[in-house]
Amino acid sequence: MERHPGTAPDTVTVLWCTTDGDERHKAHTLLVRSAAEMLDVAPSEIWLEHEAGGRPFLGGAGEALRVSVTHARGALAVALTGRAPVGVDVEVVRGLRAGALARAWLDPAETAWLTGLPEGERSAAFLWLWTQKESVGKALGQGLRHGGMSRRVPLPEYWPPGDAAGLVLRPLPDAPELASAAVMVGAGRHIIGVALRGADGSALRGSGVGLQVRRVDGDAYG
């Protein structure tokens, strides 16, 4: 099958929305419908399955894609790309004891960056890092086990970060076969983290992996 835009292994498409409930069902519906649209096939030709460890994958015509799903209270997101493992995570921005959490769980360089920010910005900064670490764990198929919280992700080039326009996933400092990014969406009320693992564990090409983030209508997936 000819690849359509957004299905290249080095590009990740993320669709997200807010919702008033039933996030899991709506996320699965969004995933199947968006995959069908991306591949120009009927939704009935694609179905959702899960590996033994819980990682989702698409059957039927959807085998051409690698996917990830996430949902939090009132929000959900799906990520789709070509045949390279992908992970996505969404979090609601909320108050946290960010400095203490950083010192307990993060890499020292990340902790130094976070604690150098104004107090009122640290919770969002912690979640900005957290969502990437969660996404990397999903792309690896192991979650945050095996030191996932201490695995370094790229620090932002500036803070607070801008919107998703022109955003790329950047290689992890100690793992060039992995790339990640995070973006604030919904007027800063949510943060989405995304990660990609190079096919067969190989280093990702170029200086960054393209990322497309788009909000959709959550009511359409009830």
Automatic annotation (TrEMBL):
The keyword Transferase applies. InterPro entries: 4-PPantetheinyl_Trfase_dom, 4-PPantetheinyl_Trfase_dom_sf, P-Pant_transferase_sf. Keywords: Transferase. Residues 85-146 form the 4'-phosphopantetheinyl transferase domain. GO terms for molecular function: transferase activity. Pfam families: ACPS. Belongs to the P-Pant transferase superfamily. Gsp/Sfp/HetI/AcpT family. This is 4'-phosphopantetheinyl transferase family protein. It comes from Streptomyces incanus.
